[in-house]
Structures are given as C-alpha cells and as structure tokens.
Amino acid sequence: MPNRFTVPGLEPAKGQATATLLQERLLALLDLSLVLKHVHWNVVGPTFIGVHEMLDPQVDAVRVMVDDTAERIATLGGEPNGLPGNLVARRAWDDYEVGRAAVPEHLGALDLVYNGVISNHRAAIEQLVALDPVTQDMVIEQTEQLEQFQWFVRAHLETGAGELATKGAKTERQAAAKASRSTTTATSNGSRTTRARSSTTKAAPKRTTTKRS
C-alpha cells in the first residue's frame, strides 16, 4: 500500500522506500526475538544458567528494536505488519533448526542467526544513505547493539587460537555440531593434560628427623 503521507522534508518516494526497507528489518527482528526466547527455554547443560540469564536482556532489547522499527514505519506514513502470517510468508529463511540442546550447540547456531540479521542490517544502512539519514541513525544504533550481543555469544565459541569453533558452517545444524565437537575436544585435551601432569609429579622426599639426645 502506498504511503498516505511522510515526514516533512522527505520526498514521498523516499519515505515509501524507507518504510518498505524497514518492514523487512521488522520481520527479521521479530524472528530474532522469538529465536532468542526459544534458546532461553531450551538450552541445557552444566553452564546453562549463565547463558539462560544472558539471553533475557537480549530478548528485551530486541523487542524494543521491534517497537522502534514499527513506529518508524508508521511515522513515515507506512503500515507496519508484524502478524505471524506475514512473517512466514515474506521471510527468506527457515525456522531455527535446533531444539532442546546443550549450550555449545545453541550458541553455535545462534551465531549464524546473528550473522544473517547483522549482515542485512548493515546492507540496510548502506541503502539508507540515499534515503533517510534519520532512519539510518536508528538502524546504526540497533546494529551496534546486535553486534555486541553476538560478541557475548562468540566469547563462548572462540578457541585458544583465536578462531570461532563454528568456522565454515553454512547451516545452524552444522554450526551446532562444530561447536559441540570443539567443546568435546577441548575437554578431552584438558583431561589428558591433567592426567599427564599427575603421572609425572614426583613424590616429595621424606624428611628425616634426628632426635636430640
């Protein structure tokens, strides 16, 4: 539907193009908020609580982004649509692929989700240069927050060599599997090192005490 109006000083065609671009970002952010909550509910394992509690602030912040984006569309004279049917019909991605799973698997898959959202947010920033700097500023601020959230996730996936455990993964399932294997390997190596140190530790020599006469 064509915009009924737009903000003062902005050409109607640019207002329409900006609102259309934001509608795609709105759907991506809605989906991200649902994925984050899904992971929050379904992550398990020894380090569960730290990740469980890390994700709720991310959910809250992304929900604020959703509201800001929808309201910006309306401000520009557009009609924001966040209905489930519209999301499913217009999205270019499939449902999140991981169900109930351990921390490394979910964080590996979530890293790929953030890759997609952030890459498309950055593409939108480039497009907005020629459309509306005010809207661009909003998307830049969102991107900064999203990149920080991804950093929180990646801190759990970075290896001692400074690489991501999910390197080369193309799907969420692949990323989950790679992250899981990396954690298993690291744990196994740590156990071998501990055993090796234990086996090479020399017993302290017994001290002899001379009785005083």
Features:
elongated; disordered C terminus; 67% helix; two-stranded parallel sheet; 2 strands; mainly alpha; 213 residues
What general form does the structure show?
elongated
Residue stretches low in confidence (pLDDT < 50, at least 5 long) are 187-194, 208-213
Task: Provide the residue-averaged pLDDT.
Answer: 89
Element string (H = helix, E = strand): HEHHEHHH
Strand-helix topology:
Elements: H1 12-42, E1 43-44, H2 48-75, H3 84-90, E2 101-102, H4 103-128, H5 133-154, H6 172-200
Parallel strand pairs: 1-2
Structure description:
By secondary structure, the chain is mainly α. It has a single domain (13-183), classed as Ferritin (Up-down Bundle). The protein has helices at residues 12-42, 48-75, 84-90, 103-128, 133-154, 172-200; strands spanning 43-44, 101-102. Helix 1 runs antiparallel to helix 2, helix 1 runs antiparallel to helix 4 and helix 4 (103-128) runs antiparallel to helix 5. The longest helix is centred in the N-terminal third of the chain and has 31 residues, at 12-42. It is elongated. The protein starts with 11 loop residues before the first helix and ends in a 13-residue tail after the last helix.
